From TrEMBL:
CDD domains: ABC_MalK_N. One of its GO terms (biological process) is carbohydrate transport. Keywords: ATP-binding, Nucleotide-binding, Transport. It holds the Pfam family ABC_tran. NCBIfam families: PRK11650.1. SMART domains: AAA. InterPro entries: AAA+_ATPase, ABC_transporter-like_ATP-bd, ABC_transporter-like_CS, ABC_transpr_MalK-like, ABC_transpr_MalK/UgpC-like, Mo/tungstate-bd_C_term_dom, NA-bd_OB-fold, P-loop_NTPase. Residues 4-234 form the ABC transporter domain. GO terms for molecular function: ABC-type transporter activity; ATP binding; ATP hydrolysis activity. GO terms for cellular component: ATP-binding cassette (ABC) transporter complex, substrate-binding subunit-containing. This is Histidinol phosphatase.
Length: 347
């Protein structure tokens, strides 16, 4: 295991500044996810850590020692790439053992390591095959196995599942988490998929335009978003945002000051059918327009005082098109954002 410190790191390509002073500490054995929209700098940050890009400023430390000046092969890190990066002329066993061969390990050492990792990943039956004979999921396992065979304390993942279909992505998410629990290596995982981020990470660092917007556990990021960007980016389906006079009716002193936006996740709405409970607030009449069946739940699409709102209800809830119902929210699970700064006034 290894503790990582990223200190005020900057990186530009020409006049375009990609990293704008990143500060981040990753605990030994932690699984940290870097998430954000395309172009936010997450892959660049990972590549600078791996030594594939050089920093313009700042420092990178592992266990308190600077590694920013070291060549990639001297940083004791393994990396799993989006495109697998397998050698087409080598079979699976040769691909997995290639880095060990470069380290001048003996054939017996290489074979032992490759066989152990292949057994762990359940790909022992594939060792004699070439990459072109493998499915996408099998290639991803081989790429992961090649990284594990190096037995490094740090493993970096650069959007490794983006080329897989939804079913395989779900399987690989679970497998990678199980490997982390077993190996206890420090892992940093880059993705633009917020579902991967919230299901895999011990902590999540959300990036936007070269800066870290918020760091926290998946629960903290989801339930206590610091600003409008975090609230809109994390969560599927997305949070609802409501503006106008309705917001000023809320029983919060902050709602009466300035222009604000009410943020409510779809599952935090309820159909009002009786007396209000403590911490509940009735918003008004909701016009149901259509429903999407999601299995155990259904997503209702409709309007609240002319604003589009989506709510999640039980799939057994029966409604008729164009029905109007009273809608209420749980105030303890709702958010108030300053429209100008985007900051959450309720945390």
């Amino acid at each position: 295991m290894a503790k990582i410190q990223i200190e005020n790191c900057t990186k530009s390509f020409g006049e375009l500044q990609i990293l704008k002073g990143i500060n981040l500490e990753i605990a030994s054995g932690e699984f940290l996810v870097l998430v954000g929209p395309s172009g936010c700098g997450k892959s660049t940050l990972l590549r600078t850590l791996a030594g594939l890009e050089t920093l313009d400023g700042g420092d990178l430390k592992v266990e308190g020692k600077s590694i920013a000046h070291l060549e990639p092969q001297d940083r004791d890190m393994a990396m799993v790439f989006q495109n697998y990066a397998l050698y087409p002329h080598m079979n699976v066993a040769e691909n997995m053992g290639f880095a060990l061969k470069l380290q001048k390990k003996s054939k017996s050492e290489i074979d032992k390591s490759v066989n152990e990792i292949a057994d762990l990943l359940q790909i022992s039956h594939l060792l004699d095959r070439k990459p072109k004979e493998l499915s996408g999921g099998q290639r991803q396992r081989v790429a992961l196995g090649r990284a594990l065979a190096r037995q490094t304390k740090i493993i970096l993942f650069d959007e490794p599942l983006s080329n897989l279909d939804a079913h395989l992505r779900g399987q690989m998410r679970v497998e990678i988490k199980r490997l982390h629990q077993r190996l206890k290596s420090t892992m940093i995982y880059v993705t633009h998929d917020q579902m991967e981020a919230t299901t895999m990470g011990d902590r999540i660092a959300v990036l936007k335009e070269g800066r870290i917007e918020q760091i926290g556990t998946p629960s903290e990021i989801y339930h206590q978003p610091k600003n409008l960007f975090i609230a809109s980016f994390i969560g599927s389906p997305e949070m609802n945002f409501i503006e106008g006079d309705l917001v000023k009716r809320l029983p919060w002193p902050e709602a009466q000051k300035g222009e604000n936006v009410l943020g409510v996740r779809p599952e935090s709405f309820k159909i009002s059918q009786g007396p209000l409970e403590p911490n509940e607030f009735e918003l008004g009449s909701y016009h149901i327009e259509l429903s999407e069946n999601l299995g155990g739940q259904q997503m209702l699409h409709g309007s609240l005082e002319g604003q589009s709102v989506r709510i999640l209800v039980d799939s057994t809830y029966n409604f008729s098109k164009d029905e109007k119902v009273k809608l209420k929210i749980d105030l303890t699970k709702s958010h108030l954002f300053d429209k100008s700064s985007g900051l959450n006034k309720r945390i």
